[in-house]
Structures are given as structure tokens and as C-alpha cells.
Amino acid sequence: MSSDALALHGVVVQRGARDVVREASLEVPPGEVTALLGPNGAGKSSMVLAVGGVLPLKAGSVKLGDRELAGRRPERIRKAGLAIVPEGRRLLPELTVADNIQVSTYALSSADAKAGRARALELFPELEKRLDNQARLLSGGEQQMVVLAQALVSRPRFVIIDELSLGLAPVVVQRLIPTIREVAESGIGVLLIEQFASVALGLAKRAYVMEGGRIQYD
Q1: pTM across the whole model
Q2: What is the mean pLDDT of the chain?
Q3: For labeling, which of 34, 87, 152, 194 is most exposed (least CB within 10 Å)?
Q4: Whole-number Å distance between alpha carbons of 204 and 141
């Protein structure tokens, strides 16, 4: 295992009375895209929520380098350098684009917040003209750019993106692909969970396949 990777080992996540993730292990190196593929209901999103501290881990470890993240609160995990883009584009719909991005800088110094915001708008220049619009008025593609900007504004070491292309037109997905590649090339490790294997495998150096809550192939 790389000493500076994001590494999951033996992760078990329970929802209700059932284990939905079963002893899952994978590694995300820095500066690369790693794909996680699998059918609906395989446990991918539950694993993401557990890694991000939203769901508890029943067992296993989540390490960013030599730092254990399992059991930490979401804000502590984010501060450690791991940002999560959950499925479903969860924005604050009545707030403006600028305010949605600003909310994600609460733990940063003013200088870091300014630099992170500038970098996010450099990656997604389309948002410049939409900063004063409410998030609910944006297209699906623009909303996806905002949630990606929210994750990247803190300049994380790793980012997990759950279902990048869900509900988006192919032309929008093709717009986002080079940006994800650019993010990885900047040194950030990306775990991309994606329903379209062609999209994920076109970006990733390594792919894992999850079925029935287990990593079956890599």
C-alpha cells in the first residue's frame, strides 16, 4: 500500500439489520483517477457515505496516508483532506451559487478560501456568470459543476465523486471529463463512481467492480 494513498481495508457498512458493504478494500493513489463500477444496489453509495463519516462503519479502516479517518465526523474528514461529492447534487437550493461555494470554505482561512474559490471558478468558468443565481434555477450540468466546486474549493488531497454523469446529457458529461482529468493531474487522487463504464475507464488507471457489497474484481 502506498504511504500517501487513500486506503480502505475490510470496510463493513450496515444499514438496518443488513450488511450492505462487506469487507471492501481498495486503494486510491494520489494524482490518479480510480474507478469504482457496479450495478445499482451494489453498496457503492453506502460505502461513500461511510467513508465520508455520514454513516458509521461497522468494521474496517479508512486511512489517508497514515491517518485513520474511520469514526471521525464529516467536517474532520474534510479537514484531513478528503472531500466527498455525494450522489444527487445536494445543494442549498435557495442560496446563490456564490453562497453555496462560500459555505464550503467555512473551515478555511480567508486567503485559502479566496484561492480555493478562484481555482474552482478556473475549472468551471461557466459558473462566473451564474454566481448571483439561486442554485435551484441552474441546469443539471451547472448544479453538478457547483457540487464539484464545493468539493474542490478546500483544495483536498483526495475527492470521491459518486455518479458523475447521473441524469446529465452526454454533452455535459463530455464537458466534465477533461476537468476530472485536470484535477487528477494536479495531484489530487480521485475515486470516481460511475454508471457508465466507458466514461470511468476512459479516465481511470485502475478500476474496481463491486457486486453484492463486495469488491469482486480489480
Answers
A1: 0.91
A2: 90
A3: 87
A4: 22
